[in-house]
Specification:
- With 258 residues, the chain is mainly beta.
- It folds into two domains: 127 residues, no CATH class; 89 residues, no CATH class.
- The chain is elongated.
């Protein structure tokens, strides 16, 4: 009887250890999410940083989940495709859950959704210089050089100051540079021969924008300056950006005497 109980206990313990190991060990990505599809995100003990000062800070940006030699990292970028704003350490137990070859989400220690790859996210925590980290600390996303690191300590529900937030509306110039409510923008990227400046808005939002501005046109020789009306069409999701279409420009006269 005692032998049977001991065997059952040993079997249960082995099963528990197997489950724990599976949850913490990277495994091959499968087509549907499961417990084995979780990879823990990097963490760091703030108390272990003996030099420098941690500074409270809030950051916002688009979530990017990348693959590293050590597993996964999750960082924020000001715009889709831009360099991350800092190297991020996440709370203990936070992980990346994969549901396909290129479909990732961040979950907390209880498996609850924090953010999807590409979400616009606000986080709060403490930052410090990357040079103050203890020797041997593996920085997330090690392929990039960082001037600062952040220990994420808080995030919230949609609509709160900390949490997944509405993507900001931007306008794209002809060089593809995103600008929120720009005061000026390039309309001819090759030689900057056509530009808008002194932009004044009568409306700005997801449904469109409009106002007045000055067009500066390169006329060979010299420049011409013309006051114009401009308008942008409704915003659409483009490469992770909520970008207005346009602009359309109404000229009161032909620039450069054309």
């Amino acid at each position: 009887m005692l032998i049977a109980v001991a065997l059952m206990a040993s079997s249960g313990c082995s099963a528990y250890l197997a489950r724990e190991t599976a949850a913490k060990t990277p495994t091959a990505t499968t087509a549907s999410p499961s417990a084995s599809d979780i990879r823990l995100l990097p963490t760091v003990d703030m108390a272990a940083v003996s030099r420098g000062l941690w500074r409270p800070e809030k950051l916002a940006g688009y979530v990017h989940i990348g693959v590293t030699p050590g597993g996964f990292c999750a960082s924020l970028s000001e715009f889709a495709g831009a360099a991350p704003t800092a190297a991020f350490f996440w709370p203990a137990g936070y992980a990346v859950r994969s549901s396909g070859p290129a479909s990732f989400t961040i979950v907390d220690e209880h498996g609850r959704l924090v953010a999807n790859d590409g979400d616009y996210l606000y986080v709060a925590g403490h930052t410090t210089s990357g040079s103050w980290l203890p020797d041997g600390t593996q920085v997330p996303c090690p392929s990039r050089g960082y001037q600062r690191v952040m220990v994420v300590q808080q995030h919230g529900a949609p609509g709160t100051p900390i949490g997944v937030a509405t993507r900001p509306v931007v306008a794209l110039d002809s060089c593809g540079v995103p600008r929120p409510r720009p005061h000026g923008m390039t309309l001819a990227c090759a030689d900057a021969g056509l530009m808008l400046d002194h932009m004044r808005y009568t409306r700005w939002g997801r449904d469109g924008a409009g106002g007045t501005a000055r067009v500066v046109m390169l006329c060979y020789p010299g420049n011409d300056h013309v006051r114009v009306h401009f308008s942008f069409g409704p915003a659409r999701l483009t490469n992770g950006l909520l970008a207005l279409s346009g602009p359309q420009i109404r000229y009161p006269r032909r620039p450069c005497g054309k």
